[in-house]
Write a structure and sequence with these properties.
single chain, alpha/beta, six-stranded parallel β-sheet, five-stranded parallel β-sheet, binds thiamine diphosphate, binds magnesium ion
Length: 668
């Protein structure tokens, strides 16, 4: 066991410091969840003081252990730990728990609080993020460690509650973690028998140890979560495991310490009340006033000296590695910093140039694979995958190598697990060292929906390849034809959605997705072929602006806005209208949010004020009123699709040039 820092305070008092901070902060905010921190206080004390390798002075140290609070409602547990161990989280921030612009938001949020690795609260997703962290560690270790040079060697610890394990995503993520043999993933289960509605046996009776053994996990069952020696033994055992992830099942009492509320749902998510806080102080023998921690307890918790020491030991190892392997060390630094290779711009320019020269008519999913073929060999750290649709999503490329339990790779066969796939991608992106992308059908983006939202909230560079993006997929019918998904993904703040119309736009979409350091991108790609569009060189440059004039007409009387597969319909309508003496311009708008971020002069030049507008997109019409106005015209689909060959479905639903021509005539 690692050395225990010299402690004048007993481990009971150290755990009680967590209890006091949690109950007092929740009481002061009159909002929050005291039960979980009070119930997991001993587990936290053992893990954080005896095992966790971290440096409070440098929360970004690349080889730190990762800690994820998947049961994020217990945020005060994490804030107490960060405060006590010496992170830049002063007691004023604890006093300001859950207040506007504090560093202690209601649930842990990455980017707000030093030491918080991922945003948690949506139950189960932190666990899937942790699987992503553990995959990242395993792959980086395989890539960068050399004989005599261990640069990457850390654990991922994740706390989970009943809620996390009830959530379906826990099955997806943990089943895959077992297959991949993520032995440095250690989950600690807060088995307190309580969730919000009361005793969980009314709705949750899984044999959890048996369930996780069936996934191929190492399970340490029946640990008394208030017995520090037993917890320490279990964590040691978990760390000694070499082939499987570990679940430590800890029997705990929610709200332990509260004489009248412990063990009940009443302590889950409400302040104890002044009387019960006082009674708890009495019961646990906590003499200090709210937000006061005795000096001896601060000293015992302080992780800064040991953190500085272990980081400097690592730095020495890294320096030696750098001397021996300067190129590998430089690559490691680039990857961890999230920077692109120095020749990136040439790679992108060359790829776009080739696509433009070839002028191929292919499906945009195929164009996406062509982009991957150009980018991936030049971008180590790009890691792909698909939810069992590799051959449809075309997320593979010639250098694809599957990750397995015993082999590193750059591709994950996620199986049919869309939600975990997206959340694991978030973990990979947040860990550092990787740019993840993953594929499924656009319609099933709904399965992963909350992880997409979390990617956006966390500004994670996670790229979602959504193919079969409309009724254009044809025969599979309305279950598979996305109607509302494109519009609804655009509604997620900080999510960029690209729906490219041909090979060149697809190349640009990929480039923008990878260059975008501060947020996720969804790519909506067609199953069916899309005709190549000849465009002027300045129009190629303009694609990056999200919306641009793809085909101009002198004295245009209207603008038609189109995306993806409907751009060619717009161009056909433009011809028909021209023949009838109605000149119109066609605007391709592959990414509305990028267009919205352009300066007003650009937006006005593309869509001049006063020029009547029509839009066409094979999906719900609502989104387009924003661009065409209430007097504009929209050709779209406000119903579910039909099972038939694509051309028949397009015709039946009226998404065609004839309808567009009529719509334009009605507005000019
Ligand atoms: C996906 C999701 N659904 C619902 C909630 C609301 N919620 C927060 S905590 C909780 C119960 C969790 O029970 P458990 O994990 O056992 O926590 P404990 O009460 O033991 O702290 C629920 C339903 C949520 N945060 N996330
Ligand atoms: Mg519980």
């Amino acid at each position: 066991m690692p050395d225990t820092p010299a402690a004048a305070a007993s481990s009971t008092e150290l755990a009680n410091a967590i209890r006091a901070l949690a109950m007092d902060a929740v009481q002061k905010a009159n909002s929050g969840h005291p039960g979980m921190p009070m119930g997991m206080a001993e587990i936290s004390e053992v893990l954080w003081r005896r095992f966790l390798r971290h440096n409070p002075a440098n929360p970004r140290w690349p080889d730190r252990d990762r800690f994820v609070l998947s049961n994020g409602h217990g945020s005060m547990l994490q804030y107490a730990l960060l405060h006590l161990t010496g992170y830049d989280l002063p007691i004023e921030e604890i006093r300001n728990f859950r207040q506007l612009h504090s560093k202690t938001p209601g649930h842990p949020e990455v980017g707000y609080t030093p030491g918080v690795e991922t945003t948690t609260g949506p139950l189960g997703q932190g666990l899937a993020n942790a699987v992503g962290f553990a995959i990242a560690e395993k792959l980086l270790a395989a890539e960068f460690n050399r004989d005599g040079h261990t640069i990457v060697d850390h654990h991922t610890y994740v706390f989970v509650g009943d809620g996390c394990l009830m959530e379906g995503i826990s099955h997806e993520a943990c089943s895959l973690a077992g297959v991949l043999g993520l032995n440095k993933l250690i989950a600690l289960y807060d088995d307190n028998g309580i969730s919000i509605d009361g005793e969980v046996r009314g709705w949750f009776r899984d044999d959890t140890p048996m369930r996780f053994r069936a996934y191929g996990w190492n399970v340490i069952a029946d640990v008394d979560g208030h017995d520090t020696a037993a917890i320490a033994r279990a964590i040691e055992q978990a760390r000694a495991e070499t082939a499987k992830p570990t679940l430590i099942c800890c029997k705990t009492i929610i709200g332990k310490g509260s004489p009248n509320k412990a063990g009940t749902e009443g302590v889950h998510g409400a302040a104890l009340g002044d009387k019960e806080v006082a009674a708890t102080r009495e019961a646990i023998g906590w003499k200090s006033a709210p937000f006061e921690i005795p000096e001896a307890i601060y000293r015992a918790w302080d992780a800064r000296p040991r953190g500085a020491q272990i980081e400097s030991e690592w730095q020495k190892r890294f320096d030696a590695f750098e001397r021996a392997q300067p190129q590998a060390a430089a690559e490691f630094k680039r990857r961890i910093a999230g920077e692109l290779p120095s020749n990136w711009n040439e790679v992108v320019t060359g790829m776009i140039q080739r696509a433009n020269d070839k002028a191929e008519t292919v499906a945009s999913r195929k164009a996406s694979q062509i982009a991957l073929e150009a980018i991936a060999p030049k971008l180590p750290g790009l890691i792909g995958g698909s939810a069992d649709l590799t051959g449809s999503n075309l997320t593979n490329w010639s250098g694809t190598k599957a990750m397995t339990a015993t082999q590193a790779g750059n591709y994950i066969y996620f199986g049919v697990r869309e939600f975990a796939m997206a959340a694991i991608g978030n973990g990979l992106a947040l860990h550092g060292g990787f740019i993840p992308y993953s594929g499924t059908f656009l319609t099933f983006s709904d399965y992963s929906r909350n992880a997409l939202r979390m990617a956006a909230l966390m500004r994670a560079r996670n790229i979602f390849v959504f193919t079969h993006d409309s009724i254009g997929l044809g025969e599979d019918g309305p279950t598979h034809q996305s109607i509302e998904q494109v519009a609804s993904l655009r509604l997620i703040p900080q999510m960029d959605l690209w729906r490219p119309c041909d090979t060149v736009e697809t190349m640009v979409a990929w480039a923008c997705a990878i260059e975008r350091k501060d947020g996720p991108t969804s790519l909506a790609l067609s199953r069916q072929n899309l005709p190549f569009v000849q465009r002027a060189p300045q129009a190629i440059d303009a694609i990056r602006r999200g919306g641009y004039v793809i085909s101009e007409a002198a004295n245009a009387r209207a603008a038609i806005i189109a995306t993806g597969s409907e751009v060619s319909i717009a161009l056909a309508a433009q011809k028909t209208l021209a023949a009838e003496g109605i000149p119109v311009r066609v605007v391709s708008m592959p990414c509305t949010s990028v267009f919205d971020r352009q300066e007003a002069s650009w937006r006005d030049s593309v869509l001049p004020k006063g020029m009547p507008r029509a839009a066409i997109e094979a999906g719900v019409r609502d989104y387009w009123f924003k661009y065409v106005g209430l007097d504009g015209a929209i050709v779209g689909i406000d119903r579910f699709g039909e099972s038939a060959p694509a051309a028949d479905v397009y015709k039946f639903l009226g998404v065609d040039a004839a309808h567009l021509v009529a719509a334009v005539k009605a507005i000019v």
